């Protein structure tokens, strides 16, 4: 088996994906399948941290469009990410692998506060670390959180697990002529305004020289394939 390309990564998971075939909430078979993929990735010898969105429960932008202030809506969304982390942590631990949720918020009865020291310790101990609460600030997406946390903990790459197999020039589900890219620079991704990740995340990745690999989470084993360098995705780097 090929050696992993990266030894420490942050994996960004879509909250909406956790709903599975449902329109809302947590689909347990989907959570369990993702847990299996993360455990398999760790068994390759990779230190794995995970950032999850909250869109399967609350989308802050949508809440704020209905009358709640944007900071309050975003806070609700960040709390939803903690709920997703706790669900995934439970699934991972049920399968016999240690995991730990760290949150950007002080919630001692629920989860430990994120610090770089705590993240380094748990990753070095062999735990899968789940990073909840976004950045702890409104107006920032969980995409930006993933890049920020990766830079903070010295990860070698951000793996953006999404519902398409890379970055396209347009939504391939709506535009059959959309072009797929095998590789882009951060600057090209920003200039092209490709919606797979927000511009703030790409800009921070450029500033910190972090590669982002965009790939589809739909195929079981796709995380491990990306880590071994055999997966199908778009590399945004340089």
TrEMBL record:
UniProt-listed Enzyme Commission number(s): 2.7.4.22
GO terms for biological process, alphabetical: 'de novo' CTP biosynthetic process; UDP biosynthetic process
NCBIfam families given in the database record: pyrH_bact (TIGR02075)
Regulation: Inhibited by UTP.
One GO cellular component term noted in the UniProt record for this chain: cytosol
Residue positions binding UMP: 54, 74, 135-142
Signal peptide as annotated in the record: none
Keywords tagged on the record: ATP-binding, Cytoplasm, Kinase, Nucleotide-binding, Pyrimidine biosynthesis, Transferase
EC category name: transferase
Protein's name according to its UniProt entry: Uridylate kinase
Function (record text): Catalyzes the reversible phosphorylation of UMP to UDP.
């Amino acid at each position: 088996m090929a050696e992993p390309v990266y030894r420490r990564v942050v994996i960004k998971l879509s909250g909406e994906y956790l709903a599975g075939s449902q329109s809302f909430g947590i689909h347990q078979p989907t959570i369990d399948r993702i847990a299996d993929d993360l455990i398999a990735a760790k068994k390759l010898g990779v230190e794995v941290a995970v950032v999850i969105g909250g869109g399967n429960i609350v989308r802050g932008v949508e809440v704020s469009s209905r009358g709640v202030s944007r900071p309050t809506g975003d806070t609700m969304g960040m709390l939803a990410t903690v709920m997703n982390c706790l669900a995934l942590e439970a699934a991972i631990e049920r399968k016999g692998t240690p995991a730990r949720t760290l949150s950007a918020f002080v919630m001692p009865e629920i989860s430990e506060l994120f610090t770089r020291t705590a993240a380094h310790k748990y990753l070095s101990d062999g735990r899968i670390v789940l990073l909840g609460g976004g950045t702890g600030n409104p107006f920032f997406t969980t995409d930006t959180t993933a890049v920020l946390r990766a830079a903070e903990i010295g990860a070698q790459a951000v793996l953006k697990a999404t519902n398409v197999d890379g970055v396209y020039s347009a939504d391939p589900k709506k535009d059959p002529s959309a072009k797929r890219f095998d590789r882009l620079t951060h600057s090209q991704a920003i200039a092209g305004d490709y919606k797979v990740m927000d511009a703030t995340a790409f800009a921070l990745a450029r500033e910190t020289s972090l590669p982002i690999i965009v790939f589809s989470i739909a195929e079981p084993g796709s995380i491990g394939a990306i880590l071994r360098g055999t997966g199908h995705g778009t590399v945004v780097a340089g």
